Automatic annotation (TrEMBL), chain A:
InterPro entries: Asp_de-COase-like_dom_sf (IPR009010), Formate-DH-alph_fdnG (IPR006443), MoPterin_dinucl-bd_dom (IPR006657), Mopterin_OxRdtase (IPR006656), Mopterin_OxRdtase_prok_CS (IPR006655). It comes from Pseudoneobacillus rhizosphaerae. This is Formate dehydrogenase subunit alpha. It is found in: Cell envelope. GO terms for biological process: anaerobic respiration. Pfam families: Molybdopterin, Molydop_binding. Residues 662-780 form the Molybdopterin dinucleotide-binding domain. GO terms for molecular function: 4 iron, 4 sulfur cluster binding; electron transfer activity; formate dehydrogenase (cytochrome-c-553) activity; formate dehydrogenase (NAD+) activity; molybdenum ion binding; molybdopterin cofactor binding. The gene is fdhA. Belongs to the prokaryotic molybdopterin-containing oxidoreductase family. GO terms for cellular component: cell envelope.
Automatic annotation (TrEMBL), chain B:
It is found in: Cell envelope. InterPro entries: 4Fe4S_Fe-S-bd, 4Fe4S_Fe_S_CS, FDH_Electron_Transfer_Unit, Formate_DH_Fe-S_su. The lineage of its organism: Bacteria, Bacillati, Bacillota, Bacilli, Bacillales. Binds 4 [4Fe-4S] clusters per subunit. Residues 5-35, 67-98, 99-128 form the 4Fe-4S ferredoxin-type domain. This is Formate dehydrogenase, nitrate-inducible, iron-sulfur subunit. GO terms for biological process: cellular respiration; formate oxidation. [4Fe-4S] cluster 2 binds at C24, C142, C145, C157. It comes from the Bacteria. CDD domains: FDH_b_like. Pfam families: Fer4_11.
Automatic annotation (TrEMBL), chain C:
The lineage of its organism: Bacteria, Bacillati, Bacillota, Bacilli, Bacillales. One of its GO terms (cellular component) is cell envelope. One of its GO terms (biological process) is anaerobic respiration. This is Formate dehydrogenase 2 subunit alpha (Cytochrome c-553). One of its GO terms (molecular function) is molybdenum ion binding. It comes from the Bacteria. Keywords: 4Fe-4S, Iron, Iron-sulfur, Metal-binding, Oxidoreductase.
């Protein structure tokens, strides 16, 4: 989230698309209800009328997988009718920059495409610079090669009639959506976009988000109280776990994992490669070296490249993401697997096949509160023959969040502490202790080893007190960082250095523990400091800022766009940015100073990216899902040309002939993710006790299905049983003249726990987004029949 | 003497999360009791002895043909003239100073009159076993968390309600709130109304409904059955005087069936009552 | 812990509850249920954050030391102000559910059942497995460049763990053990 939950109350209009917060983030509606009381509007765009739609002022359906067409049409309409926020666009976005004439686009393909590798030469999409290395601008926005004109041209193909033929949205509802949301483009107004996995879980997921970004920049909504792009995170600490580098491609604080390219053979070469020439990331060497110091302590010195060589290097261009883990496992390349509270046999794409891959492991360690479908993949109940599975499986009982202490970071980046309320149940233990026990044993086993595999283990700095229970306070201090000589805490990341004199486990969190005895995640002062930002409650990264990009909440000369919605503003008398938030800007850089308009200073241009380089192009372009009942109306390119394929056995693809119905998956208020945390609890199990599939009255009639019937849903991956829930909340779509049906299913169910049922992910495809490789759970093909 | 309070339910703000259902079970230590698949997201057909409030899910097409997805927190209404209180032969049901209607489980003999006579069908019998394995029954329903009220705390369901669809406060304030809300939503919901039926003397759970009561499965004009009034005010006192309380309790089933003509069908519906949920 | 008595008094959520004591004449407390029967009397609540979605609602946990007897929204947390959804309201059963696994378990190759084992045995055996796999499959160089990595062990999950835990997890798995297959729920 650029903003935070409480801030939703300040919005003039919330466009909720690709998310269903009333069901999956219910407390958001406490704040949206307040916004409504003040005259704010809510728009719900969803294939199905949801509990969120029930609270909306306006509902518009769209076919799953047509988001770029939908938002592209909004962008086009806003440009054509000059509904954008002109002053914001000119000053804070890259609209005026001139793009090199190597950029081109034709019939769904940008210039520089290599079909063999399914990738682009992205260097063709650069900005023009002058002889002084300054970006060339056309402030009139008229140059045919400026971003604004190229964008206008690109989206001109997304006219309303074409769009609604693709999305299936009734035209009048579509126009109403655009007009209602475009109102927020007026200076002083603020609109927010709230999205979740309905946006990201597509082969074009990242570009779906990009399209939101373009829309919000055009309307001048980023950086404002009540505005922003708000990704609603589905797990209590999925924000934190991402911040701390639990994805293969990032170490902590969103910095690169090294690869074995020749330039990265040395730390110096690595830093040169990953550090941009302009923007805030020029400080990266300070953050990276401080991280290495936190990792390797005294074993990290200037003479050994601060331990850089201990770090594992990825094979260049090799993908290590979730689906590729299972590809490798299936091929027998992975021997051991740790699963910390995760359940891919229910939650993974093509889950039946992922379950099969698990049986090729030599050993598995499941750390969980519950026996999950994944930790029990070898059981008869799972359809397996235990005698044929040689995997050694360890189950380590973890305790719950209130049986231990520690902090979590919510969607709004607020790092809040959880205290221990009771001792761990039975013999269960906190994950901190389990990880610590593993580390101590590895260090012990490698203590006297000279094997190359011993080096990093021995160098790893692991001093968290005595015994098997680590001192969490020591971990907190290290995350924040301290002076390696004096051990005094570092006040903030601006004080980190690249000479090894400071350490910091995660630079974006630096500042949460700025001095002795002050762990700000424990702060509980709930007096509002202004505009609902509660600056003394917990800590928000970075630097306790509550709204990212808040320089843009003020006009170019530093006055608030609206007096009712003051983020920060320039106080000339004090020569400071002041207001209701911690400035996301150099605090004494005046509007007239060099860089005084660089609201997006993390980027080399300092400007919001209407034009932004992604794997499949600098502008979002509509492509159909991997499985779609229709051909692409915008070009002859059916599938995202940069989406990658994995192991063939996982890649089954159904055709519309065999599977004519679009299917999507989602969650319900009463269950959570792969279900272990809710299907094992009696009170939630009774609320949604059965797997169901939502079917429109029209499709039910066609198929002879009655409400409460048992039905079978089939896809190219398999089939599952569910109860039919016949509903008025799903309606058939009219796409390019033909009727297309869609059904939807919750994906929480499995065979373990109190509430059991078929796993929807036995049906979902094993293909993902071209940038993130997030699986395309949200649009695939199926058929439905009575059981 | 405490003042009279009302639980105010504005269904138009409810987003159907069902925290109220769990909050009730959590505070009152009630067990889960899954029912068969209902064909919608609704978990239970109606409130039961172990599930004191149920969220109703309703898909309704309004007169303009627009789809409305309606939710209603359904639980005891805590009537001012409570049929259950009138028909209880054991005086196990009483009014509290807060306006809530509560069942004294020590007095309840499980006869079920209250269940049969409730105009809203929100009381049920729970079956328990004593330590000798003998089964016995007790009437159960929402208590309005009277134990919490006595400690200065609001009902558990109200406290947890995040959109503020439920509020608890003194009677006049809540009625004013309801009137104000009604005027705000009239444009969007022309059929909106306040549900605080006079036939039972008004209730201590009142609703702002977006559509007619019948759309929510509520009787349009519920009232205390005349028979219940006769029983409470005439038959029971005389009977007790003449026959003694124990004998009266034995007569329970007989009297109940004859006098009230109950088979669980007539829930005190007025003759001209219009639509009902049955 | 910065947790005051004032907050305890406000436990019923909505500041209105505290006000109620003063404003609504609840002072007489001629309770039918005596204070000792009141289920949370004399219990000190512990503040926590909901383990479910990413909103980060505050919850108060009432424990008697042996069991969790009640949970309710934390009225002082400005995000939820004492309210919760159905999941957050059920947090109590995360502790009380009889489905919790309370001891380490082991499943031998080819076996059809779990065996109860003790922590030391399990941790030692896991550690030996890890070392054995690492030592056999460790990649020191790739294209002549030092890569120090292990591509035969994967670590998945962690979105439900605390920040301090995921920090140590990524530190151990990546910087210590050299794993490249490190993934979690943010991807799926």
């Amino acid at each position: 989230m650029t903003n935070h939950w409480i801030d939703l109350q300040h919005t003039d209009c919330a466009l909720i698309m690709g998310g269903n917060p009333a069901e999956n983030h219910p407390i958001s509606f406490r704040w949206l209800t307040k916004a409504k009381e003040k005259g704010g509007k809510i728009i719900s765009v969803d294939p199905r009328f949801t509990r969120t739609s029930s609270q909306a002022d306006l509902y518009a359906p769209l076919r799953s997988g047509s988001d770029i067409a939908f938002v592209g049409g909004m962008i086009n309409y806003i440009l054509e009718n000059k509904l954008y926020h002109e002053e914001y666009v000119k000053n804070y976005t890259n609209a005026a920059l001139i793009v090199n004439d190597t950029y081109s686009f034709d019939d769904g393909i940008f210039g520089g495409y290599d079909e063999k590798t399914r990738s682009y030469d992205k260097t063709l999409w650069g900005f023009k610079k002058d002889e002084n290395d300054k970006y060339v601008r056309d402030n009139t926005l008229q140059d045919p090669n400026c971003v604004f004109q190229l964008m206008k041209k690109h989206f001109s193909r997304y006219d309303i009639d074409t769009v609604v033929e693709v999305t299936g949205t009734p035209k009048d509802a579509y126009v109403k959506v655009i007009e209602m949301f475009a109102e927020t483009g007026k200076p002083g107004k603020a609109g927010t976009i709230m999205y979740a996995m309905g946006t990201t879980q597509h082969t074009v997921g990242s570009q779906n988000v990009r399209a939101f970004g373009i829309l919000q920049l055009l309307l001048g909504n980023i950086g404002l109280q009540g505005g922003g792009i708000n990704a609603m995170r589905g797990e209590s600490n999925v924000q934190g776990s991402t911040d701390f580098g639990l994805l293969y491609n990032n170490v902590t604080g969103y910095m690169e994992t090294p690869t074995s390219t020749p330039e990265e053979a040395t730390y110096k070469g690595f830093l040169e490669k990953v550090t941009p020439k302009a923007g805030y990331w020029t400080n990266k060497p300070k953050f990276y070296t401080s991280m290495l110091k936190a990792y390797y302590g005294n074993s990290a010195t200037a003479t050994n490249e601060f331990g850089y060589q201990y770090m594992p290097k990825l094979t260049p261009k090799k993908d290590y993401s979730h689906m590729r883990v299972f590809d490798s496992m299936y091929k027998g390349e992975i021997e051991g697997l740790f699963m910390f509270g995760t359940n891919p046999v229910v939650g993974g794409p093509n889950a039946g096949k992922e379950k099969e891959a698990l049986s090729k492991l030599k050993w598995m360690v499941a750390i969980d509160l519950w026996e999950t479908e994944s930790s029990a993949f070898w059981q008869k109940e799972a359809g397996a023959n235990p005698a044929e599975i040689d995997t050694e499986v360890f189950f380590l009982p973890a305790c719950s969040s209130f049986e231990k202490e520690g902090s979590v970071s919510n969607s709004g980046r607020w790092m809040q502490y959880r205290w221990q309320a009771i001792a761990p149940k039975g013999k269960s233990k906190g994950d901190l202790e389990i990880i610590h026990m593993l580390a101590l044993r590895q260090k012990e086993l490698y203590k006297n080893s000279s094997h190359p595999a011993a080096a990093a283990v021995k160098a790893l700095d692991w001093n968290y007190g005595h015994g098997e229970h680590p001192d969490i306070d020591l971990v907190c201090r290290e995350i924040n960082g301290y002076d390696t000589k004096t051990k005094t805490q570092i006040a903030g990341f601006k004080d980190l250095l690249d000479d090894g004199s400071t350490c910091s486990g995660n630079w974006i969190y630096c500042g949460f523990y700025p001095e002795e005895g002050k762990n700000h995640s424990k702060r509980r002062d709930n007096k509002d400091t202004g505009m609902g930002n509660y600056l003394n409650w917990s800590f928000a990264w970075p630097a306790n800022r509550r709204i990212l990009g808040n320089r843009a909440s003020a006009t170019p000369d530093g006055k608030p766009w609206s007096k009712d919605r003051v983020g920060i503003q320039w106080d000339a008398a004090q020569n400071l940015w002041v207001g209701n938030d911690v400035p996301d800007f150099t605090k004494d850089r005046a509007p007239k100073d060099e860089g005084g308009l660089s609201a997006f200073f993390m980027l080399p241009t300092g400007l919001g990216g209407l034009f932004g380089v992604m794997n499949e192009g600098p502008f979002p372009e509509h492509y159909e899902p991997y499985e779609s009942p229709v051909t692409n109306a915008f070009s002859s390119v059916q599938l995202n040309p940069a989406t990658k394929f994995g192991v063939e056995e996982f890649m089954t693809q159904g055709s519309a002939k065999d599977y004519p119905i679009i299917a999507t998956t989602y969650r319900v208020s009463e269950h959570w993710q792969a279900g272990a945390m809710t299907r094992n609890l009696p009170w939630l199990s009774e609320l949604v006790a059965y797997m169901f599939v939502e079917i429109s009255e029209e499709l039910a009639k066609e198929k002879g299905i009655k409400n409460k019937d048992k039905v079978v849903i089939t896809s190219a991956r398999g089939n599952i049983e569910a109860y039919a829930m016949i509903t008025k909340r799903f309606k058939p779509f009219k796409i390019q003249g033909k009727v297309v049906h869609q059904v939807g299913m919750p994906w929480h169910f499995g065979y373990k726990g109190i509430a059991t049922g078929g796993s929807a992910n036995h049906l979902t495809p094993h293909i993902g987004d071209a940038n993130t490789n997030i699986p395309e759970y949200k649009a695939f093909l199926c058929d439905v029949r009575r059981a | 003497m405490a003042k009279e309070y009302i639980k105010y339910v504005d269904v138009t703000k409810c987003d159907g999360c069902r925290a109220c259902m769990v909050a009730c079970k959590n505070w009152n230590d009630l067990p889960a009791e899954p029912e068969e698949f209902q064909g919608s997201l609704q978990s239970h057909a109606k409130v039961t002895a172990n599930t004191w409030n149920v969220l109703n899910f309703i898909e309704h097409e309004n007169s303009k043909g627009d789809l409305e997805y309606l939710f209603r927190h359904s639980s005891c209404f805590h009537c001012t003239d409570a049929a259950c209180e009138k028909v209880c032969p054991e005086d196990a049901i009483s009014y509290t100073d807060f306006g809530s209607v509560v069942i004294n489980n020590d007095k309840c003999v499980g006869c079920g009159y209250c269940v049969q006579n409730c105009p809203f069908d929100v009381i049920s019998l729970a079956t328990y076993k004593d330590k000798n394995g003998k089964e016995y029954r007790k009437a159960q329903k929402c208590t309005m968390c009277t134990d919490r009220l006595e400690e200065g705390m609001q009902p558990a369901c109200v406290v947890t309600c995040h959109p503020g669809a439920m509020q608890f406060g003194n009677k006049e304030d809540m009625l004013t709130l309801a009137e104000k809300r009604l005027s705000e939503i009239k444009e969007k919901f022309p059929n909106a109304n306040i549900y605080n039926p006079a036939g039972v003397g008004g209730t201590h759970t009142i609703y702002v409904l977006a559509e007619k009561p019948s759309v929510y499965g509520l009787p349009e004009k519920p009232k205390v059955p005349t028979s219940a009034v006769i029983w409470k005010d005439y038959a029971q006192p005389i009977g007790k005087l003449m026959l003694g309380a124990t004998t009266m309790a034995v007569m329970a089933g007989f009297v109940s069936n004859k006098l009230f003509n109950k088979g669980g069908h007539d829930h005190g519906q007025d003759e001209e009552g219009g639509d009902s949920d049955e | 812990m910065d947790f005051t008595r004032r907050q305890f008094l406000k436990l019923s959520g909505a500041t209105a509850a505290t006000l109620a004591v003063i404003e609504l004449g609840f002072d007489d407390k001629k309770a039918k249920a005596s204070a000792k029967d009141f289920k949370i009397s004399q219990l000190k609540p512990t503040p926590t954050i909901c383990p479910y979605c990413g909103v980060g609602c505050g919850i108060l946990v009432y424990s008697d030391g042996k069991d969790v007897v009640y949970t309710e929204g934390d009225p002082d947390n400005p995000i939820n102000e004492g309210t919760l959804c159905s999941k957050g309201t059920t947090v109590r059963q995360v502790y009380t559910s009889d489905k919790r696994v309370e001891t380490p378990l082991y499943r031998a190759p080819g076996s059809a059942k779990w065996e109860v084992v003790d922590w030391d045995w399990a941790m030692n055996r896991i550690s030996e497995k890890m070392k054995d796999t690492r030592d056999r499959t460790f990649i020191q160089k790739e294209n002549g460049i030092t890569v120090n990595k292990v591509e035969s062990i994967a670590c998945m999950g962690g979105a439900a763990l605390d920040n301090e835990e995921v920090y140590l997890l990524s530190k151990l798995m990546r910087a210590g053990l050299g794993l490249t297959y490190i993934e979690h729920q943010a991807r799926i």
